[in-house]
C-alpha cells in the first residue's frame, strides 16, 4: 500500500513548495479539521495514474472485442453493402 503524508491546510499555505515536493512520489492528503478534503499529487505520479487508467481501459476494450468477435462483421463486406 502507498504511504500517504497528511498536511493541514495551514501547513500547505505555510510551505506549499515542501508539500509539492512531498507529493512527487506519494499523494499528500490535505486535511481540514482532521478530515481529508483533497489529495495533492505530483506531476510524475499523476501521469503514471493516467497511463494506468488508459491501459486498463484498453485492456477492457480488447477483452470485450475478443468476447464478442463472433458477432463482428468484416469491414469490406459492410462497406460493400453500403455501397462505399
For the biggest sheet, the summary is: 3 strands, mixed
Number of helices: 4
The order of strands across the largest sheet is 1-2-3
Gyration radius, in Å: 23 Å
Beta content comes to: 15-25%
* Uncertain stretches of 5 or more adjacent residues: none
**Could you tell me the number of beta strands?**
3
Outline, from the CA principal axes? rod-shaped
Assign a percent range to the helix content.
Answer: 40-55%
The topology string of helices and strands comes to EHHEEHH
Overall mean pLDDT = 90
What gap, in angstroms, lies between the N and C termini?
54 Å
Structural class, please?
alpha+beta
Description:
The protein is an alpha+beta fold and 84 residues long. It starts with a strand and ends with a helix. Helices cover 55% and strands 18% of the residues. The protein has helices at 9-14, 16-22, 43-67, 75-82; strands spanning 5-8, 28-32, 35-40. The longest helix has 25 residues, at 43-67. The radius of gyration is 23 Å and the shape is rod-shaped. Strands 1-2-3 form a three-stranded mixed β-sheet. The chain has four helices and three strands.
